[in-house]
Design a protein that fits this description.
The structure is a single chain. Helix 5 crosses helix 6 and helix 9 crosses helix 10. This protein is an alpha/beta fold. The termini are close together. The protein folds into two domains: 170 residues, 3-Layer(aba) Sandwich (Rossmann fold), CATH 3.40.50; 200 residues, Phosphoglycerate kinase, N-terminal domain (Rossmann fold, 3-Layer(aba) Sandwich). Strands 5-6-4-1-7-8 form a six-stranded parallel sheet, sandwiched between helices.
Length: 393
């Protein structure tokens, strides 16, 4: 069992907390602050223990100079200050004399946020490639390291694995919650149903292979369903196709023919414009340029039938283009069924959590993960580098 923040004496210590403040921004403003809110318990605990709190996080991807301004953590500093009801010291550099001096002069109960760790990726991807010199620099700023960024726990970066290998360490409350929720899937109460959506089969090959054996039913919707339908011999019109993985889908359909449940009808349109007309058709009735953008009513009923009596559900990826209301019906109806029937439901991060928030179900499910990629790799049974490096109790 990994050490948690409560296992360490934080009083008067410089505590570096790696958070996941990778929030969506529009015109410089935060669109969804869920990840910030989820980090507050750990930050507040450290402050209550009279620690000097130093926060690190990435935001977006930084590949060129133009990415620096749009991916600054400035809006996060403002948001944090409002939630914590105290001023936040913000240093808009990842390394500088000002940063060192600010840390040196911090008092107990103060908070410092350092600029986007991925600004270091502009010069040789030092953050993403876990540059030892960068990790050593950041580690020199603190006495203790807390990893509370579940969204990057499957990555070996300088700001998580690098620092943790150099300082006394533990996980924060957010990571602890995530691991507790996912550990229930190691020995799930049955029937155990997996719902997979989203666009690409390639993103979920490992999960399909790992959970195909374990799950009682494997419900497949979203864009990835059309690669399975293609593999089953259907004409999929202009729907999204992961052509490189048609043979893989054929293998899975043969191997798990009694477990896999595919759409039987779809809501289709010629394009993704929300003003365009759409029609509900059987999956074998798609015209050459028509795209399936949501599951149809017969499929909703079929999926619900597959979920009847389920005790545990893990769901990754929406069942349609939920961003457009007319294509969110399938995702909405399945979420409604799961929550109204009190089925233990874990949403595996990413778009399905965003969809559940938009549709009003996020707070009604058992757990909504903050890390899609990390959740998938956990379910595949892969080692999570950001967790492995944390000390055992």
């Amino acid at each position: 069992m990994k050490k948690t923040i409560m296992d360490l004496d934080l009083t008067g210590k410089r505590v570096i907390i790696r958070c996941d403040f990778n929030v969506p921004l529009k015109d410089g403003k935060i669109v969804d602050d869920t990840r910030i809110v989820e980090s507050l318990d750990t930050i507040r605990y450290a402050l209550d223990q009279q620690a000097k709190v130093i926060l690190l996080s990435h935001l977006g991807r930084v590949k060129e100079e133009s990415d620096l301004q749009k991916n600054s953590l400035t809006p996060v500093a403002i948001c944090l200050s409002e939630y914590l009801k105290r001023p936040i010291k913000f240093i808009n550099r990842t390394r500088s004399d000002t940063l060192k001096d600010t840390v040196k002069n911090m008092r107990n109960g103060e908070v410092l946020l350092i600029e986007n760790t991925r600004f270091e990726d502009l010069d040789g991807k030092k953050e993403s490639k876990n540059d030892p010199e960068l990790a050593s620099y950041w580690a020199s700023l603190g006495d203790i390291f807390i990893n509370d960024a579940f969204g990057t726990i499957h990555r070996a970066h300088a700001s998580n694995v690098g620092i943790a290998s150099l300082l006394p360490n533990a996980i924060g409350f957010l990571v602890e919650r995530e691991l507790n929720a996912l550990s229930a899937l190691d020995h799930p109460e049955r029937p155990y149903v997996v719902i997979l959506g989203g666009s690409k089969v390639s993103d979920k090959i490992g999960v399909i292979q790992a959970l195909g054996e374990k799950a009682d039913k494997l419900i497949i919707g979203g864009g990835m369903a059309f690669t399975f339908l293609k593999a089953a011999g259907y004409n999929i019109g202009g729907s999204i196709l992961d052509s490189e993985n048609v043979d893989f889908c054929k293998e899975m359909l043969a191997k798990y023919k009694d477990k896999i449940v595919l759409p039987i009808d779809v809501t289709a349109s010629l394009d993704t414009n929300k003003l365009s007309s759409s029609r509900i058709i059987k999956v074998n009735e798609l015209r050459p340029n028509e795209m399936g953008l949501d599951i149809g009513p017969d499929t909703i009923n079929s999926f619900i039938k597959a979920l009847e009596g389920a005790k545990t559900v893990i769901w990754n990826g929406p069942l349609g283009m939920y961003e457009i209301d007319q294509y969110s019906i399938g995702t909405n109806q399945i979420l409604k069924y799961l929550t109204e029937n009190n089925i233990e439901t874990i949403l595996g991060g990413g778009d399905i959590v965003a969809a559940s928030a938009k549709l009003g179900y996020k707070d009604k499910v058992s757990h909504a993960s903050t890390g899609g990629g990390a959740t998938l790799e956990y379910l595949e049974g892969k080692e999570l580098p950001g967790l492995k490096v944390i000390n055992e109790k």
